């Protein structure tokens, strides 16, 4: 007799919530106990920001199947939007005085505003850019990313007053990016993207990746969904940029060059195209390895590059391929293994009684 071992959806959400809270509790306890130092806490904040960047880019590359190379531009827009907004609000003085509760609304507005402005840029760029494919799309998005950086560098001379502060950078940005805030943003980003990809909109995006012509022939509005994926990707890149500005306290246009986009793309490719878990793992590993190799000076990038080459030789599809880890799926397998044994035990008991 076949038994239904599927876990109900509300129970799945509850299990995932318990696991997330437990993970946060472990990190919080280790930080409070001094096991995780301030230095490593800062590295974990950087890891969280890179996870948001990698997971957001994975929407365009892994799920949609396109190759944009201007992700650093959207991150720059979010960083400057959040930085300028936070400098114009009393959030800095509120945090210094310890009044965190009053600062929270400003922080939430800064994050949402950064995402919206970056998403608007994604819409403006995506409508003409996504008419192209392959190398042409990569070239035009790379060009747009560089245009954003150049505009941020020179816009003050056009406006006639200090706005982005040019090449000298935007400084004295209130430092809002604590481990707790970044952790919450990482969880919300992954949950929202997961829910979108499991919806009919996500299935439409995946169908475009598999065969765009067949999708269009089935009535799917391919242009709409391509732009939607691009805007969603840009939105979360803007949120990551705001967290980045709130972590360092200063933002420079030179940070968001072409190589920054390549760095984010490497995380996605290394983790596995279309695998959210792969992006999370790759962003974590590459950020930590890059920091650990900082002591070897110029050889750091050589070792870093060799590790990537070796990885691509032995795992060309990335660490996780297209596989996404699901805790509920593992629990269902465990229940499926235990349930037959219980059934066999009952059968044997019944046979013995007879």
SSE inventory with pairings:
Elements: H1 9-32, H2 38-63, H3 71-88, H4 91-96, H5 100-129, H6 134-159, H7 179-198, H8 200-210, H9 212-217, H10 222-248, H11 258-271, H12 276-292, H13 299-314, H14 327-353
Helix pairs in contact: 2-7, 2-10, 2-11, 2-12, 3-5, 3-6, 3-10, 5-10, 7-8, 8-10, 11-12
Descriptive report:
The protein is mostly helical and 354 residues long. The chain has helices spanning 9-32, 38-63, 71-88, 91-96, 100-129, 134-159, 179-198, 200-210, 212-217, 222-248, 258-271, 276-292, 299-314, 327-353. α3 packs antiparallel against α5. The chain starts with 8 loop residues before the first helix and ends with a helix.
From the alpha carbons, calculate the radius of gyration and give it in angstroms: 23 Å
Which structural class do the helices and strands define?
Answer: mainly alpha
Question: Beta-strand percentage?
Answer: under 5%
User: Helix proportion of residues, in percent?
Assistant: over 70%
Question: Which overall shape is indicated by the principal axes computed on the Cα atoms?
Answer: globular
Number of distinct beta strands: 0
Please report the number of helical segments. Answer: 14
Topology pattern, helix = H, strand = E: HHHHHHHHHHHHHH
Average pLDDT metric: 85
Main sheet attributes: strand count, strand direction, barrel closure: none
Distance between the termini: 20 Å
């Amino acid at each position: 007799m076949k038994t239904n071992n599927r876990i109900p959806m509300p129970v799945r959400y509850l299990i995932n919530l318990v696991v997330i809270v437990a993970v946060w509790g472990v990190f919080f306890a280790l930080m409070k106990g001094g096991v995780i130092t301030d230095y490593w806490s800062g590295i974990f904040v950087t890891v969280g920001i890179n996870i948001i960047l990698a997971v957001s880019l994975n929407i365009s590359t892994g799920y949609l199947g396109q190759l944009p190379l201007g992700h650093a531009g959207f991150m720059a827009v979010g960083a400057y939007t959040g930085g300028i907004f936070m400098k114009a609000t009393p959030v800095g003085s509120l945090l210094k005085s310890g009044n965190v509760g009053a600062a929270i609304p400003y922080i939430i507005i800064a994050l949402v505003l950064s995402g919206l402005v970056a998403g608007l840029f994604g819409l403006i760029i995506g409508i003409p850019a996504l008419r192209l494919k392959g190398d042409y799309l990569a070239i035009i998005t790379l060009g747009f990313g560089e245009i954003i950086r150049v505009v941020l560098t020179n816009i003050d001379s056009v406006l006639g007053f200090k706005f982005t502060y040019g090449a000298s950078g935007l400084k004295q940005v209130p430092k809002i990016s604590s481990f707790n805030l970044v952790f919450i943003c990482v969880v919300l980003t992954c949950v929202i993207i997961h829910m979108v990809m499991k919806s009919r909109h996500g299935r439409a995006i995946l169908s475009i990746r598999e065969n765009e012509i067949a999708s269009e022939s089935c009535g799917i509005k391919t242009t709409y969904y391509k732009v939607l994926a691009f805007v969603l990707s840009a939105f979360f890149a803007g949120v990551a940029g705001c967290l980045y500005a709130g972590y360092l306290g200063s933002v420079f246009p030179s940070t968001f060059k072409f190589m920054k986009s390549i760095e984010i793309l490497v995380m996605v490719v290394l983790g596995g195209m279309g695998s959210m878990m792969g992006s999370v793992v790759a962003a974590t590993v590459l950020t930590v390895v890059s920091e650990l190799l900082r002591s070897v000076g110029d050889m750091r990038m050589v070792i870093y590059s060799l590790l990537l080459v070796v990885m691509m030789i032995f795992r060309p599809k990335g660490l996780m391929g297209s596989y996404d880890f699901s805790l509920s799926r593992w629990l269902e397998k465990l229940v499926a293994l235990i349930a037959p044994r219980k059934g066999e035990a009952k059968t044997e008991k019944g046979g013995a009684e007879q």
